Amino acid sequence: MAGHTQPINPLPGVSAAVLVAALILGTLFMVALRAEAGGGFGPADWSALRFTLLQATLSALLSAGLAIPVARALARRRFPGRRALIALLGAPFILPVIVAILGLLHVFGRAGWVSEALGILGLPPIQIYGLHGVVLAHVFFNLPLATRLILQGWQEIPAERFRLAAQLGCEGLAMFRLIELPMLRRILPGVLAVIFAICLTSFAVALTLGGGPRATTIELAIYQAFTYDFDLGRAALLSALQLVLTATAALAALRFSQGEGFGTGLNRAIRRWDGGTPVLDAFWIIAAAAFLLLPLASVTISGIAGLFEMPALVFRAAVISIFVAAASTVVLLLLALPMATAIATGRYGIVELGGLLGLAASPLVIGTGLFILIRPLANPTTLALPVTALVNAIMALPFALRILVPAARDTLERHGRLALSLNMNNWSFFLRVMLPRLRPQIGFSAGLTAALSMGDLGVIALFADAQIATLPLQIYRLMGAYQMQAAAGGALLLLILSMGVFWILDRGGRWHVEA
Amino acid sequence: MKHLAIAAGILTATSAVAADKPELTVYTYDSFVSDWGPGPKVKEAFEAECDCTLNLVGVEDGAALLSRVRLEGENTEADIVLGLDTNLISAAKETGLFGPHSITADYALPVEWTDTVFVPYDWGYFAFVHNADAPAPTSFRELADGDAKIIIQDPRSSTPGLGLLLWVKASYGDDAPSIWADLADNIVTVTKGWSEAYGLFLEGEADMVLSYTTSPAYHLIAEEDASKAAAPFDEGHYMQVEVAAKLANTDQPELADQFLNFMVSDAFQTIIPTTNWMYPAVTPSSGLPEGFETLITPQKALLFDQDKAAAAREQALAEWLGTLSQ
């Protein structure tokens, strides 16, 4: 498609990308500017870099690798409760880190359910702490995202391709080679890059599950540089390193994810005639559901008692969190939609890179940079909520782009020529063709952003004062005050709210199609 | 619409302070300002006697708090910084941002307090907390030789974690690395902060967790649960003394002095034990709350003086990383 006229004005998208990149690089620059003579790159940093790369690579490969059979099984099978299962599978992704860790260890820890079950059989408890524990936790967080993204790839293959395949008797390996593999080649690099970038900035999860200082990541070193050493130069240097690593991964993904789409279809509901092996598909669905839902079940069980012990303040925090989530979602859509359409033209891959930077940027650096920027103009504390909403939106941007871009690309490919021949202007193409076609993806990305924003502690801890607290912050405060049970109740409330907004927005986007 | 009104009310409530009253801004750590910490009661009690507005600003933890003040430098909004501990004092003094105080009080600290800049408001001993019905080791040596499992905090991201590092260093000096080497197989994991570690301990992930000798008091007083105990160690226990100071550049010097005086008075000190779960720096006339008498009292209090703490920290951290990263 590249190289000829298209019914899209890329300017808004490019501007949005420049804005995001300016914010991320600008905050980094502000931090570096404030630096005094700082420490350089020591041997400890090299080992942190090695561990960070190792765990992020393994986590990305494993999450995406396992997501393929799970998504394939979900794409091929129809069963009661499938939609609810798909929605629930998204939950680990949106839990606050500390809650997810407790939930995971409730199942896989030394005193966890699995160890207890092994104990009944006379076997020793599982040893969860170590590199494998870190990867397990990251797969727990990212398998659902990878599954959703890949499943979406399957659902975007026009139904006619499957019809034709069925008519030609194309099944199993041939089906995989001719239809599924090309789709995966287009989708997978982006999925890998996103997960790699998320895991790159892991800190508390990597440290806790890693079992000690061997599991030191760059993000921990950044935290240490900021708080204990007040070495802003070092913090900026390490943060720049994270950005370079993510940018490299993103560029590699862009390079590899080129490939032809599947062309036009008539938007029939997808029906599959190839049988596959139901037993194997059932195995993947059940295994993934058990792995992802057991820790959530433990969060629910430990939260139920606390739900009735929570002080009213927790509910006030919940209301604040809902507003922050709503604001984040609006900001996100304003940034992501023009960016996705610009990327869809095929000429502005660099826009996507701008979006991905949001993942690589350490929240500490963005927060501190914004703090330095805002301070001469206003009291940062009074802007705590808007800043949190903005940063949450930028953090969610890479996910939204991964969701929106493939569909935007297909829409342009299918309807771009017709729109040009009808002399449609850019705005009406966007409004009358792009938006309606993207509705399911908009619903999904809005739901994901709202849920992420609700669950993420974000930068609120850097700015908050006594009166303003989001739900995740209030949960941390409860834990800090020994009130673990009330905190568990808060976590359950958060889980319910996040799943609720996700469900509403995601469903809203696809009320007329089968998902 | 109702929710919108509530949110708007929350947003404006903070800015709608009476303009005619003087305002004192105190930067402190987040758990101090939380609704379960001392913050709300302290605010009420001080405002009752100062005819001013006390503005408490929470910043993550003690170390992040110092970073914030350094980031803001001389034109910081803060008049008082409350919540640094003895390990941070020397770094704090180096900034030159803090001014001297003129407070005298009858401190109940196990060590003599002579610092001219920082005023202590509470203190505690680090200790390993365990389930009272299980046997506990009585020294680091016994712990290292036994097979009890512990969860500790990372000294690079947590003040208790740093406290443990100095505790071992103060007890064993140059032999500290060999203790850490023997402790390695006892350590289940190292967490970012206190909350994660304590949460995991309550979930049953370890036999003991690094916390304070006062932790069992919370369970006893707030939850009427006597099942937790702190293990007394023969080497003695390292102390954490939490301090406050006024900024040299404050535009409210009298009010700041008034606050520091209030801080060592009964009104403030009676709030501390059952909200911050630490010992008050000055024992209030009403004594300690019922339940505190059940806590262990270490035979020996360990504490590096301020300058030594900074040097010891660097060395101990390198040793800790070297030993446990292998």
UniProtKB/TrEMBL annotation, chain A:
Q: Where does the UniProt entry say this protein principally localizes?
A: membrane
* Residue ranges of every copy of the ABC transmembrane type-1 domain listed in the record: 49-253, 318-505
Query: What SUPFAM superfamilies does the annotation carry?
Result: MetI-like
Cellular compartments annotated: Cell membrane
Q: How does it sit in the membrane?
A: Multi-pass membrane protein
Q: Where is the signal peptide?
A: none
Question: Which InterPro entries is this protein grouped with?
Answer: MetI-like (IPR000515), MetI-like_sf (IPR035906)
Enumerate the Gene3D superfamilies for this protein.
MetI-like (1.10.3720.10)
Q: Name one GO biological process term.
A: transmembrane transport
Entry's transmembrane regions? 12-33, 53-74, 86-108, 128-151, 187-212, 232-254, 282-308, 314-337, 349-377, 383-405, 442-464, 484-505
Keyword list (alphabetical) reads: Cell membrane, Membrane, Transmembrane, Transmembrane helix, Transport
The entry's cellular-component GO terms read: plasma membrane
Asked if the record carries the keyword Transport, the reply is yes
Put simply, this protein is called Thiamine transport system permease protein
What organism does this protein naturally occur in?
Ruegeria halocynthiae
Print the organism lineage: Bacteria, Pseudomonadati, Pseudomonadota, Alphaproteobacteria, Rhodobacterales
From TrEMBL, chain B:
Q: Which residues form the signal peptide?
A: 1-18
Taken from the UniProt entry, a GO cellular component term is:
outer membrane-bounded periplasmic space
Looking at the record's lineage, which domain of life comes first?
Bacteria
Q: What is its main location?
A: periplasm
> Where found, per UniProt?
Periplasm
Q: Which UniProt keywords apply?
A: Periplasm, Signal, Transport
Q: Which GO terms describe its molecular function?
A: thiamine binding; thiamine pyrophosphate binding
Tell me the CDD domains matching this sequence. Answer: PBP2_TbpA
Alphabetical GO biological process terms: thiamine transport
Q: Could you say which protein family the record assigns here?
A: Belongs to the bacterial solute-binding protein 1 family.
Record protein name field: Thiamine-binding periplasmic protein
Q: Which organism is it from?
A: Ruegeria halocynthiae
